[in-house]
Each structure stands twice: as structure tokens, then as C-alpha cells.
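Hey,

Quick one before I head out. I ran the complex with shikimate-3-phosphate overnight. Inputs first:
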Amino acid sequence: MLIGPMAVGKSAIGQQLAQQLGVRFVDTDAVIVAGHGSIAEIFAGRGEHAFREIEARTVADAVEEADGTPTVISLGGGAVLDSGTQQLIGRCTVVYLECDAETVADRIARNSGRPLLAGDAMGRWKAMFATRRPVYERLADITLDVRHGSIPELGGRLEAAL
Ligand code: S3P
């Protein structure tokens, strides 16, 4: 299970790791989009609260389905704020992808469909990271510094750390 702030590369590194290990990969944001439409649309039409409910259900289903089937699951950056989700992911090996604002600045600036980064994207990212960071750190079994290295290199380092 990969956790960490927005735009840190949870999906790309998760996909890479799953390929290396030859196991299933589930990106919960992608599951949400497939079932409910784009994240921007969900936020705009139904609000963040509705998104969080959908997200918590999606994570619970993914953890349930992974029971007995080796799976790499990547979560959205805010999924770990839900207390039910925090309990559920205790059943998983949790990898926190650690980075800083500078590393993800380009991706944040492009902001591809992340409603919570509308406006001052960098300022919002930093503020969210400041409040969420202790949660990521508390839940992590493994912390992977993703500031340097290509996706395959990071996948290799993560596999070695598991
Ligand atoms: C969010 C992160 C996004 C997505 C949604 C909300 C957040 O996922 O779930 O826009 O609250 O941090 P990524 O972490 O994949 O960008």
C-alpha cells in the first residue's frame, strides 16, 4: 500500500513495483474515476465530503479484494485522513513516499485535475503536506525517499526494502 502527498508518484511507482513483483496493481483514484467520473466533477458536483465517502469505500473494497491475493495498492493523498481507512491499512505493508515541494513543483504546477490545488497550488500543497505529514509518518512501515531516481530505480529500491 503506497501513501504520500499529491503528485509524489504513488501511481507510477506502484505500477512499477507491481510489474516487478508480478502482482495486481490497484490505483484507488483510478477506480473512483472509472465508477463515478472525474475527481474534479465529483468535487464540483457533490463536494469533498461525498468524495471522501466514495474514497473510503473504494479503499476498503481494495483491501478486501487483496486479502489472499498479493496486490500493490496506491491511495490518493488524502485517503489516510479517514479513521476507518487508518485501521484497515494496518493489515497492509504501508510504504510512505517521502518528498518535498521542490521535487514535485513541476507536477504541482501542471496540477492535472486536482481540485484541492486550484489557485495557489504550491501554497496549498505545502499547507496540506504540513498537516498530513505526521499521519503519513505514523502509518508508515517503510519510508522511501523519492526525491532522486527514475521510476525503475525507485521500484528497485522499494522492492529491496520490502
Ligand atoms: C487528493 C489527492 C488526489 C485525489 C484527490 C484528493 C488529496 O490523489 O485523490 O484530488 O486530498 O490529497 P493524488 O494523491 O494521486 O494526487
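The mean pLDDT is 94.

Talk tomorrow,
K.
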